[in-house]
Specification:
Blueprint: E1 3-9, E2 17-21, H1 23-26, E3 30-34, E4 40-44, E5 56-59, E6 64-69, E7 71-78, H2 82-94, E8 100-101, E9 106-109, H3 112-120, E10 124-131
Parallel strand pairs: 1-4, 2-6
Antiparallel strand pairs: 1-5, 3-4, 5-6, 7-9, 7-10, 8-9
Length: 164
């Protein structure tokens, strides 16, 4: 019998089983998986869901499953300055490349074309095996629409309106 998993729970909830997946599979809301216990499960979550390492899922038998980000091949990118690293992130963002951001590094899925581009921009690039947890994007979980929620005031440039 295949276990059904339909619900996300808050991180930190006690768990009974583990599900290890690479990022490419954690982006899918409909997926057949094998848990660490060896049990097969059908993952059926809200469309657009992205699973993160540490997420908890509730199976139809009451079992709580912890999600872990699998080790996978990534490119570890550093630069000679924060400005250069920002430049690399800008060019990768223009290509809609999922990125994990650190204070002095970027991680992205291995891709020889992107690696050549980064080397051409003067970056230092290493192949590495690591869990991959890219940013959710501007409209993912961390985006806020209300300036009152921010720690600092929101400053907006004046708008110009064309009347015609």
């Amino acid at each position: 019998m295949i276990l059904g998993i339909y619900e996300k729970l808050p991180a930190g909830t006690e768990f009974n089983d583990t599900l290890v997946l690479p990022f490419v599979r954690r982006q899918k809301s409909r997926l057949r998986v094998v848990l660490e216990s060896g049990d097969e499960a059908a993952l059926i979550l809200e469309r657009g869901s992205i699973l993160r390492g540490g997420d908890r899922l509730k199976a139809d038998d009451g079992r709580i499953v912890k999600v872990e980000a699998a080790l996978e091949p990534v490119l570890y990118v550093t630069a000679s300055s924060p400005l250069q690293l920002s430049r690399a992130a800008y060019h990768l963002g223009n290509r809609h490349v999922p990125l994990q951001l650190g204070a002095e590094w970027l991680l992205l899925e291995q891709d020889h074309v992107l690696e050549e581009m980064l080397l051409g921009l003067g970056m230092t690039v290493f192949e590495k095996i690591s869990p991959f947890e890219p940013e959710a994007g501007a409209y993912g979980g961390g985006h806020r629409h209300h300036p009152a929620e921010d720690d600092a005031p929101l400053i907006r440039a004046p708008r110009k309106h064309a009347h015609g």
